[in-house]
Every structure is written in C-alpha cells, then in structure tokens.
C-alpha cells in the first residue's frame, strides 16, 4: 500500500533544509503511513543580502512566498506545512494561517564567534574600535551598554557565509554574533567561542525553536503535529511571542527575553528587556505564573510582563526608535 505524501516547505539555506529534514524525521517516526517530501524555496529575505532586515520589510520577508504555497490553486504545487525558525515568524499571522506546532528548543542563547586563528577569546579582550558583526539591533543595543568602545556593523548571509566573512584574513570584522542553535543544528558547535546568558544578552523571542505553520483549521495536520510538539518549548515561546505582540515589537526592535519553565511545579518565569538603540536606556522586568491552561496562561504571562514593562517606560523607548539612524 502506497504511503500518503505530506509536502514540507521551507527556505533553501542549509540550516533551513536541516530543520525541514528534522521535522520530516519526527513525523515519519510517529506516522510510518506518511512519507514527507521537502520543497526548499528562496524567500525575499534570502535574495536581498546587502541590507539589514529592518530596512526592507521585517519578518514577512522570510514567510510570504512559502505561505502562498499553502493555498496554491494547483494541488501539485501546494504544500501542507512550513518549517520556520520561530524567531522569524511574525507574532501576528495573516488570516488563514496558524502555528500548528513548536518543536523542542535547541539552546536559545546568542554566542560569540571569533576568526579561526584569533588571539582573542571574549568581547572583553577586544581593543577599542574593534568591529563586531551583527545585523540584529537587539544584539548590538544590548552589547553597547557593556561595550561602548566597540563598533557594530551589519553582516548578512547564511551561517557559512558569515563564518567565511569573519575568517577572511582581509575581514574588518574582529568577531560576529550568531544564534547558538543554528551552529548546533549544523554541527558547528566548535566555532562557538563564548555563549551569552541574560547577564550579557537576552536572546530573541522564539530563538532556538522551530515553528510549523499550517492552514488555519486543518485538523488533520493539527493532529499529526500534536505528536511532535514540545510542551515546555511551546509554553515558553507562546509567552515570549505574547510579550512581543503586546509591546508591538518585531524583529527590528531591541526586545530580548529569557524564559524558564519548571514542568514539575507548572511554574513559568519570563524575563524581558527593551533597550534603546544606543544602549543607553533599558527596561528590564520579569513575571512568573502557574500554568494550568498551557496556551491561555502562557499568553497571559507575556501580556502581563509587557504591561509591566510599558508602565516602566518600555513603550517610550520603542516609540522613539528611528530605524534610519541605526548602525
């Protein structure tokens, strides 16, 4: 008897294909009656590598072309689900789409990568005026608080492209900042020089997790994906995304988070930070909650923290950001 085919869509970078392959393995392991086929597509965000993301459309540049395929009128071209890095997914999806599952998170931390032969081992070692490569305002804003003597410049491209740029003997970057999860998924853990916890840098909302997007109300896919979803990761990421949505932030504003969920006590602790672009002002707060309804309570936690941060001045910082003068 032939197996039913599920078509998985994702971006065409090596990391994205590795993530789609992982979801394929998870589904086929739980449901041997299905065979998953992967479609890899270049999105607008992949095609425009010369500009920082905040300058040409934010998170939708990673998702729109793939979302179009979920509803393609030609059944042969249609896909059934999309595998995203969750941090790239807008907190408000267009009508007709939903997050069907969030898989187990890999280390959500940011990390430092030095050139292969660098004599430096940490940001503390770098001399005045050293150039740190990162296209993330969240990262540069937080690091400017601690390292005002360093310079921060945009660096785009996939993981291998960025590693090549920093390793080039002619490179003007003394180091780059990346998500640890991407290096781990690509088997490049050895390139991590230093990992940052929240005392140095809060990570991005959803970082390290994969979000699977489906057509809204697709019960068949909901049931399948419920078997590969991770409860702890889902609770944490729903809270983080609720925080960002309530603060009206996107990938272009400096909102950082750190989340811990104690499953035995059902206790969720969400920490958040909003930093101005220059790294001179910051609002840092936390909120905890007991989780009874995983979806509703997680989202309530994020909303409560956002309101607490707004009252402390976070909204004033976010409203004052002028993207044209960043970097």
From TrEMBL:
The protein's annotated pathway: Porphyrin-containing compound metabolism; protoporphyrin-IX biosynthesis; coproporphyrinogen-III from 5-aminolevulinate: step 2/4
Recorded GO CC terms: cytoplasm
GO molecular function: hydroxymethylbilane synthase activity
Any GO BP annotation: protoporphyrinogen IX biosynthetic process
Protein name: Porphobilinogen deaminase
EC number: 2.5.1.61
UniProt KW keywords: Heme biosynthesis, Porphyrin biosynthesis, Transferase
Organism: Vanderwaltozyma polyspora (strain ATCC 22028 / DSM 70294 / BCRC 21397 / CBS 2163 / NBRC 10782 / NRRL Y-8283 / UCD 57-17) (Kluyveromyces polysporus)
Function text: Tetrapolymerization of the monopyrrole PBG into the hydroxymethylbilane pre-uroporphyrinogen in several discrete steps.
Superkingdom, taxonomy of origin: Eukaryota
Cofactor requirement: dipyrromethane
Statement: the UniProt record of this protein carries the keyword Transferase: yes
UniProt cross-references to NCBIfam families, sorted A to Z: hemC
InterPro entries registered for this protein in UniProt: HemC (IPR000860), Porphobilin_deaminase_cofac_BS (IPR022419), Porphobilin_deaminase_N (IPR022417), Porphobilinogen_deaminase_C (IPR022418), Porphobilinogen_deaminase_C_sf (IPR036803)
Domain Porphobilinogen deaminase C-terminal: 235-311
Catalytic activity reported: 4 porphobilinogen + H2O = hydroxymethylbilane + 4 NH4(+)
Spans traversing the lipid bilayer: none
Family: Belongs to the HMBS family.
């Amino acid at each position: 008897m032939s197996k039913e085919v599920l078509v998985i869509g994702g971006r065409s970078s090596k990391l994205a294909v590795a993530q789609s392959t992982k979801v394929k393995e998870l589904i086929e392991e739980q449901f041997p009656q299905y065979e998953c086929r992967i479609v890899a597509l270049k999105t607008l965000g992949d095609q425009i590598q010369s500009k920082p993301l905040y300058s040409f459309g934010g998170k939708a540049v990673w998702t729109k072309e793939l979302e179009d395929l979920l509803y393609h009128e030609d059944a042969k071209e249609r896909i059934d689900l999309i595998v995203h890095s969750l941090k790239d997914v807008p907190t408000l999806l267009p009508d007709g789409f939903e997050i069907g599952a969030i898989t187990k998170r890999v280390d959500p931390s940011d990390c430092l990568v030095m050139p292969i032969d660098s004599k430096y081992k940490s940001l503390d070692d770098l001399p005045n005026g050293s150039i740190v490569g990162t296209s993330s305002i969240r990262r540069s804003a937080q690091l400017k608080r601690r390292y005002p003597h360093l310079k921060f410049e945009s660096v785009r491209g996939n993981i291998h492209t960025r590693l090549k740029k920093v390793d080039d003997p002619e490179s003007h970057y003394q180091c780059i900042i990346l998500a640890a999860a991407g290096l781990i998924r690509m088997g490049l853990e050895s390139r991590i020089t230093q990992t940052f916890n929240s005392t140095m840098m809060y990570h991005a909302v959803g970082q390290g997790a994969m979000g699977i997007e489906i057509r809204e109300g697709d019960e068949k896919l909901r049931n399948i994906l419920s078997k590969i979803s991770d409860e702890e990761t889902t609770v944490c990421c729903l809270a983080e995304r609720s925080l960002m949505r309530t603060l009206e932030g996107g990938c272009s504003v400096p909102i950082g988070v750190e989340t811990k969920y104690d499953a035995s006590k059902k206790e969720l602790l969400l920490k958040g930070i909003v930093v101005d672009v220059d790294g001179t002002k910051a609002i840092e707060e936390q909120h905890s909650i007991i989780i009874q309804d995983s979806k509703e309570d997680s989202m309530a936690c994020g909303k409560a923290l956002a309101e607490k941060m707004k009252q402390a001045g976070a909204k004033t910082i976010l409203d004052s950001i002028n993207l044209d003068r960043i970097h």
